């Protein structure tokens, strides 16, 4: 190192000052980048949220239509059972009509409520009846596993 009339303390102080300024510049730049990334993430999250909400609303409409179709099928079945002569058929027809009315009622509620209300209703139902919620989750899991297992190319049954 060339001697320029500076003491080692002066050189160390200069180096410390340059290091401090560089660290501040790096910190400022990092802060700017973090703000930009946060803004980009917020925009992406908003887009994803609106896309998910749109898909959920679309699915809600399909489910409501399917429930209404099931209610119609139950009413048709009840009409056919009414043609029977025994009292068991009439009783079964009555149950089918009640089930159809319940399906229609649920279909209408599903169609009329928005996604947030449905989510709140589901959360409240789980809080009030956790055992039913666990049972329903197990049943759905079992059905999904059977569906996925049945989707394979080969038949595994003996």
Topology diagram in text:
Blueprint: H1 8-82, H2 87-112, H3 115-128, H4 130-150
Helix pairs in contact: 1-2, 3-4
Q: Explain this structure to me?
A:
- Helices cover 86% and strands 0% of the residues.
- With 158 residues, the chain is mainly α.
- The longest helix is centred in the first third of the chain and has 75 residues, at 8-82.
- The chain is built from 4 helices and no strands.
Mean pLDDT equals 82
- Assembly category: single chain
What fraction strand?
A: under 5%
Cα Rg: 33 Å
Low-pLDDT regions: none
Task: Write a brief caption for the model.
With 158 residues, the protein is an all-alpha fold. It has helices at residues 8-82, 87-112, 115-128, 130-150.
Summary tags:
158 residues; 86% helix; single chain; mainly alpha
């Amino acid at each position: 190192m060339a001697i320029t009339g500076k003491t080692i303390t002066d050189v160390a102080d200069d180096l410390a000052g340059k290091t401090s300024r560089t660290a501040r510049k790096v910190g400022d730049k990092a802060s700017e980048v973090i703000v930009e990334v946060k803004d980009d993430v917020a925009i992406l999250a908003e887009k994803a949220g609106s896309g998910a909400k749109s898909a959920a609303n679309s699915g809600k409409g399909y489910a409501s239509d399917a429930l209404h179709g099931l209610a119609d099928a139950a009413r048709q079945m009840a009409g056919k059972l009414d043609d029977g002569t025994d009292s068991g058929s009439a009783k079964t027809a009555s149950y089918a009509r009640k089930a159809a009315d319940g399906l229609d009622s649920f279909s209408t509620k599903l169609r009329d409520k928005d996604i947030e209300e449905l989510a709140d209703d589901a959360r409240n139902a789980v809080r009030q009846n956790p055992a039913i919620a666990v049972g329903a989750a197990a049943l759905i899991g079992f059905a999904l596993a059977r569906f996925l297992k049945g989707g394979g190319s080969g038949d595994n049954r003996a």
